[in-house]
């Protein structure tokens, strides 16, 4: 989160606020803390110290005499919510000049401001998503044409390399042919990724067990994680509802995220990956955390062909493809760097209609 503005703080408290916004507080934090407290107005909450303390507020030094309106350590929160119901920010207030003014009538004025801010923030986020979607669509059309043009000559190269391999006995020439054939096949896989990136396939959504899909993907990478001493921990909330996804495409997302985390841990001493799945606000949240170096530029991770991996290790299409698949499923995907180091990728997925109706 970003401290968009504040007033009334001394330098020490202001520094704490900047730090906690950047490193501690998240939209999930806002959603969780806003479920507590007593409603003051239509969209404002009064939280007492016992309710707010564990959420690491900025401590107030001002002391108020006993009164029926305000207790030392109280905080008033006015959440900023988008038209879709998601939390995009929050106004936090304390130390009122007049304690008797902490009431619904006075808060209605601040709630109007909060509504305008929420619309502004949400519109900016939607604009960024639209620009990204248009960029992906344009590049998708381009790469589809290029990939199809490359496929035919590449198939010939692979075919002739295999024919020559059968004719050449073992030795240096055979080794060179084998290497040429492997590299051509790698090019074929890159082209397949390009076509998958550009292709608009019809989704086959069905009720799927998220934990089962996750275990299948982990099994594919089990040997590699064990051989490289990667500590993988999985925490799936009990009675997690089934999700509405295309299983093959969703396994592709999970595998991409798993591979990215493993690659990021290369060279790290204590390699850790934590995968967490839980239900929040009627949506299933899946988080991939690792203790690698983090993203060098969180604003570019979903751009096609953007990669920080060495040449030959990545095409820069993995997260772009994940972004497209998640959006087609009606979900969301976000990335963030962790403190002091590490990366987090968060998936937000729709619950299958049958289970949503039961909740």
Task: Provide key terms for this protein.
five-stranded mixed β-sheet, 10 helices, alpha+beta, Heat Shock Protein 90, 359 residues, 3 domains
For CATH, the homologous superfamily of the largest domain is named as: Histidine kinase-like ATPase, C-terminal domain
Strand tally: 11
H/E series: HHEEHEEHHEHHEEHEEHEEH
Query: What is the fold named in CATH at topology level of the largest domain?
Result: Heat Shock Protein 90
How would you sum up this structure, described in words?
By secondary structure, this protein is an alpha+beta fold. The protein folds into three domains: 11-102, no CATH class; 129-198; 206-356, 2-Layer Sandwich (Heat Shock Protein 90). Helix content is 46%, strand content 18%. The chain is built from ten helices and eleven strands. It has helices at 11-23, 27-33, 49-52, 104-167, 172-198, 210-220, 222-227, 247-264, 318-328, 353-356; strands spanning 38-39, 45-47, 75-81, 87-93, 206-208, 230-236, 243-245, 271-280, 283-290, 332-337, 343-350. Strands 6-8-9-11-10 form a five-stranded mixed sheet. A four-stranded antiparallel sheet has the order 1-2-3-4. Helix 4 runs antiparallel to helix 5 (172-198), helix 6 (210-220) packs across helix 8 (247-264) and helix 8 runs antiparallel to helix 9. The longest helix is centred in the middle third of the chain and has 64 residues, at 104-167. Mean pLDDT is 80; it is low at 355-359.
What would a concise description of this structure say?
This protein is of the alpha+beta class and 359 residues long. The chain is built from 10 helices and 11 strands. The protein has 3 domains: 11-102, no CATH class; 129-198; 206-356, 2-Layer Sandwich (Heat Shock Protein 90).
């Amino acid at each position: 989160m970003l401290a968009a503005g504040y007033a009334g703080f001394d330098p020490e408290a202001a520094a704490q606020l900047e730090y906690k916004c950047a490193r501690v507080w998240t939209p999930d934090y806002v959603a969780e803390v806003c479920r507590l407290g007593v409603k003051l107005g239509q969209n404002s909450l009064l939280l007492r110290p016992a309710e707010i303390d564990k959420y690491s507020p900025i401590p107030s030094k001002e002391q108020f005499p006993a009164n029926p309106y305000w207790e030392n350590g109280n905080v008033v929160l006015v959440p900023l919510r988008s038209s879709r119901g998601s939390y995009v920010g929050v106004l936090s207030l304390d130390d009122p000049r007049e304690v008797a003014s902490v009431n619904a009538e006075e808060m209605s004025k601040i709630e109007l401001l909060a509504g305008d801010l929420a619309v502004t923030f949400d519109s900016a986020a939607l604009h960024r998503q639209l620009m990204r979607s248009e960029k992906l669509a344009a590049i998708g059309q381009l790469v589809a044409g290029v990939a199809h043009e490359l496929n035919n000559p590449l198939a010939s190269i692979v075919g002739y390399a295999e024919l020559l391999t059968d004719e050449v006995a073992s030795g240096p020439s055979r080794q060179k042919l084998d290497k040429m054939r492997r590299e051509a096949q790698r090019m074929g896989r890159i082209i397949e990724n390009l076509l998958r990136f550009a292709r608009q396939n019809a989704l086959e959504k069905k009720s799927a067990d998220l934990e089962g899909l996750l275990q299948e993907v982990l099994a594919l990478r089990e040997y590699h994680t064990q051989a490289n001493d990667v500590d993988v921990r999985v925490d799936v909330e009990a009675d997690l509802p089934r999700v509405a996804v295309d299983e093959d495409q969703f396994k592709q997302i999970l595998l991409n995220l798993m591979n990215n985390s493993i690659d990021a841990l290369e060279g790290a001493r204590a390699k850790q990956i934590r995968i967490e799945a839980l239900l929040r606000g009627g949506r299933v949240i899946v988080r991939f955390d690792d203790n690698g170096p983090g993203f060098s530029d969180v604003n570019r991770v979903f751009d096609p062909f953007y990669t920080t991996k060495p040449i030959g290790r990545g095409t820069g299409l993995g997260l772009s493809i994940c972004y497209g698949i998640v959006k087609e499923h009606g979900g969301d995907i976000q990335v963030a760097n962790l403190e002091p180091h590490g990366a987090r990728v968060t998936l937000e997925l729709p619950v299958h209609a049958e289970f949503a109706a039961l909740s």
